[in-house]
Amino acid sequence: MSLATSVPVVESRRFRSVEICAGAGAQALGLERAGFDPVLLIDSKADACFTIDLNRPAWDVVCMDVLQFHPSMRQETLNIDLLSGGLPRVKSSATVGRTEDTEERGVLRATIGLACAMRPKAVLLENVPDLVESPHFEADRLWIESALRDAGYRSSWRILNAAGFGVPQNRSSGFLVALQEPYFSRFSWPEPDRLPPLTVGQVLGSSMASRGWPGAERWIKGADRIAPALVGGSDRRGGADLGPTGSKKAWAALGVNGNSLGDEPPGADFPSGEHPKLTVDQAAIIQAIPENWHFFGGKTSRYRQIGHAMPPPLATALGRSIAVALES
What we know:
The structure is a single chain. By secondary structure, the chain is of the alpha/beta class. The chain folds into two domains: 7-193 and 310-327, Vaccinia Virus protein VP39 (Rossmann fold, 3-Layer(aba) Sandwich); 200-306, no CATH class. It has helices at 26-33, 46-55, 99-118, 129-133, 138-150, 200-208, 216-222, 245-252, 280-286, 299-307, 312-327, and strands at residues 15-20, 36-43, 61-63, 82-86, 122-127, 153-161, 169-170, 172-180, 227-228, 257-262, 277-279. β1, α1 (26-33) and β2 form a beta-alpha-beta unit. The longest helix is centred in the N-terminal third of the chain and has 20 residues, at 99-118. The radius of gyration is 20 Å and the shape is elongated.
């Protein structure tokens, strides 16, 4: 069973958007289902841009550093309905001050500058939960709110867990939504589903059994919870694995070997008592990315694109809440 094969109804009312730090397009895909059609997508990674072009050839994708972009370069980006992006993760309080964190905060501030220049009706930005709640980021929040307020926006922050929106993964993210009036007063954050998400065994069971592995049925019964947050594949570390020691232990409790990724599901000769590795395609299922969304590049590159993605169902829920505010 795979929840990623189901495709929600695309909304009839359409809005215009720009997506920055677009990655492989998972957030844009979720927003498309909520009624937002991107007039431009920007990302600095060539493989990610090729992935978007592979799946949505009609979308206009530009491969460049967002720090080098200005709305005057593309007039169609002005006065859009939504500016959205999953920005590079600012570092938690334990690592604030490192060089790469300075770069990531620079992207965050540049994005606020883009919002003030583009004048979209709404802004949706995703980052780490610490940006929303940690006192170490209070100065950043105050600066962001002040800059947006001066440009005519009101802002709201929230932490949402993808598991509350049908994704089989314990994945929390921090969000900023800002809207011009009168739209802000009509905005409400999406409410989590009442039904629990499917378990790892439920969503990956058919894949694990697809090549005749005799241990599949036993594995499905043991993988009886949602997945931990899919991490790993950082641009600043080695090849693709399922993250640091704590993450690998959580995967091991679900019967998954997180030391590296597999090339294919376990076959008939794979020992029944051993833990299989996740494949790239299975990682995409854990992120609730549709199975017909294809990724460009080598295994590590494809996994990084998946690991950095926002699960589309969560993007859809947020997009629908914003759409309701815009059309009311």
